[in-house]
Write a structure and sequence with these properties.
CATH topology: Rossmann fold
CATH class: Alpha Beta
Helix content: 40-55%
Strand order of the largest sheet: 2-1-3-4-6-5
Number of domains: 1
Number of strands: 6
Shape: globular
Order of helices and strands: HHEHEHEHHEHHEHEH
Number of helices: 10
CATH architecture: 3-Layer(aba) Sandwich
Distance between the termini: 33 Å
């Protein structure tokens, strides 16, 4: 099944976001504080991270604010400098507040920023497709976020090989001080709703057909 999925929806062999979330769950402290951006980062956290021990979760789940994971992580880390704080950041959300990397650096906050770098506004993409619309306007022209973090004085780790995922996550958590873990994840990953409907499935099928036949630039 894994080989079939790789052939159909992950031809570039990008890292599965599910695998990233599961690795973070495995290596994060049992009293870690998690924050998550609104969107796909929240989906993967909710499905693959367990709130065991005295872990806590902060998000913008009623308001649906974008780019909230990093500033909320800053607040949590300032409140408890000795506690591990892990932010599940979407690449779109992180891009909106890149300046806050300097805030983290200036105060030397040991926040661990985990970036789901799928080069997309992922939730918007899925919302378009389930409505029968081909993906439009959701692609992001991302920099190397790890290199940006390094240039600003943080530890930056970029992960492109699925085989190095677990070692990289362990390294991020073992490194003192602030760390940005930039993981290139599969942009075509599908998060099936808890209670999918026939209408959603039909819309998604129509969208995929449109995407497969439309030419570049349309």
């Amino acid at each position: 099944m894994g080989r079939l999925r790789a052939a159909l929806d992950n031809r570039d062999h990008d890292i599965r976001p599910e695998a990233l979330a599961a690795a973070v769950d495995r290596y994060a402290d049992d009293d870690a504080v998690f924050t998550s951006d609104t969107g796909m980062a929240t989906v993967w956290l909710s499905r693959f991270v367990s709130m065991r021990g005295t872990r806590r979760l902060i998000g913008s789940y009623n308001l649906g604010s974008m780019a909230n994971a990093m500033p909320q992580a800053i607040g949590a880390q300032l409140l408890d400098p000795q506690r591990q704080v892990v932010a599940f950041c979407g690449d779109g959300g992180l891009s909106m507040l890149l300046g806050d990397l300097m805030t983290i650096r200036t105060h030397n906050l040991p926040v661990k920023l985990v970036v789901f770098d799928n080069r997309r506004l992922g939730m918007v993409k899925l919302e378009q497709e389930q409505a029968g619309l081909p993906e439009f306007g959701t692609e992001l022209d991302n920099p190397d976020f790890a290199a940006v973090a390094t240039a600003l004085g943080l530890t930056g780790i970029r992960v492109t090989d699925p085989g190095s995922l677990h070692d990289s996550v362990r390294e991020a958590f073992a490194t003192p001080g602030p760390v940005l873990l930039d993981v290139l994840t599969n942009p075509q990953e599908i998060a099936v709703p808890g209670k999918p409907t026939v209408a959603q499935g039909w819309g998604f099928a129509i969208a995929k057909i449109k995407e497969s036949i439309q030419s570049d630039g349309t």
